[in-house]
Amino acid sequence: MASPSSKAFLSLGRIYIPLLGFNKSSGKVTYATALSINSSSGNKGLPDRGGRGSLGRRPRRDAGEPRTEKMPVDQDWTAVYPAAAPFRPSSVPLPVRMGYPVKGGIPPEKKGNLELIKIPNFLHLTPAAIKKHCEALKPFCTEWPSALDTDAKCDEHFPIKVESTDYVSAGPSLRNLSARIVHLRNYDYAMYLLTVLYHESWKTEAWEAEKTVADMEEYSWEDSPSQKNVLDLLLRMKVAGEGDGEEVRQQLLGRREVQEYKDSVTRLKNEGESESGMVQYKEAVKKVFNL
Amino acid sequence: SPSYLFFCFVFLQSTLAWSSLCRFSGNRSLHVTASCCKNRAARIRVGKGDRPVTYEQAHHPHHIAHRKGWLSQHTSNLKGEDRAAERTIEDVFIRRFVFGTFHGCLANEIVIKRRGNVLSVCAVMLQKLPPQKFYFLIGYTESLLSHFYKCPVKLEIQTLQDKAVYKYL
Hints:
The complex is a heterodimer. Chain A has helices at residues 13-16, 24-41, 77-80, 114-118, 127-137, 151-157, 187-202, 225-237, 246-254, 256-271, 275-288. Chain A is an all-alpha fold. Among the domains of chain A are: 4-35, no CATH class; 76-141, no CATH class; 220-288, no CATH class. Chain A is elongated, with a radius of gyration of 41 Å. The radius of gyration of chain B is 26 Å and the shape is extended. Chain B has a domain at 69-163: GMP Synthetase, Chain A, domain 3 (2-Layer Sandwich). In chain B, β5 and β6 (118-126) form a beta hairpin. Chain B has helices at residues 55-58, 84-101, 131-149, and strands at residues 7-12, 28-33, 52-53, 72-73, 111-115, 118-126, 153-160, 167-168. Chain B has a four-stranded mixed sheet with strand order 4-5-6-7, with helices on one face. A two-stranded antiparallel sheet of chain B has the order 1-2.
């Protein structure tokens, strides 16, 4: 080119930073200044036709230097990549290389590298960006109650859980057809039902007092044949001299081995037979009889 | 695409074989088989060494997922998702459309990404047209494709002076 002053820094703003909304009007401003520089240089004109040169058109401008040259080290990266965008080699000041190297060569550079564009990048999710997101969301959030620090406590105070499913899908339509398949549950009606059941369960009817041992849904060891048998056996075993009295029975009941025996029998009856249940029962029996 | 191998043997039995004249020596048979076709999909064969080739063209399809990525990304191929065929048809149309609209300007293949319902078309172009024409074509493509597919279509363009040559074949 004839003179350096004619070089216009053509910031193809729309091309390099499409998402920041560089609109065409600002682009036109740069062109206008560039044109004035060109016309004022004087020794241009017809002999210096650009590539086309059919009607003495304005010569083809060189592309400006990429934005990476002008980036300060402490810039705000969230302004460069505010949202998810493909990799732009002239906006990322890193000397990345990607690809299988040619024999005796190195991976191809980032300029014009389609592989870098193909992969998803997280340049818009740097820690600084995430901090900004959190700051923006803070006004809408309240503190987590400090008493609810374990899952068990959360379950205890808030036992009802509502499940919802989210779908990830990409296509022209906003709706996901599988979102129409639901477990038919009306949330309000479910809440109403649960409230009613809760209150009903606290009421006791008169006929509930007539419950017998056969009606019990769980096995309880107190006043059961197992308890009677164990106590009789123990009395006969060791305390032949102390006699059979109520306080002796109570004292025996309080003993640790008897409690363990009670636990193992209850477990076997309630949960059914299992390997560990039988082992526990065996240990308890051994302890009770000092075997 | 699968290659089909046909084997067809055609025998011509001459009934005059056992005639008194034994000049015709029995079977005159015609054997026809299809040649075993070499795989020619998406390959540029090695030549004199003067043909510049991009990274995309230089690597054959069996290098996908080893040395090459995917040119189109969407969720329809995940488990439980459907409409993969529709996405593929859209991709094919978009590639041809962009190739024709920016004729001679494309430096490499087009990468299509779908994020939610936004269709993002990433292309690397050569600086063959003046920027105003580029802007017009970009706007034209975006609005036309958005109306066509009823979803936001974004065109993200990068420009280069020349194609990025990977090697010469």
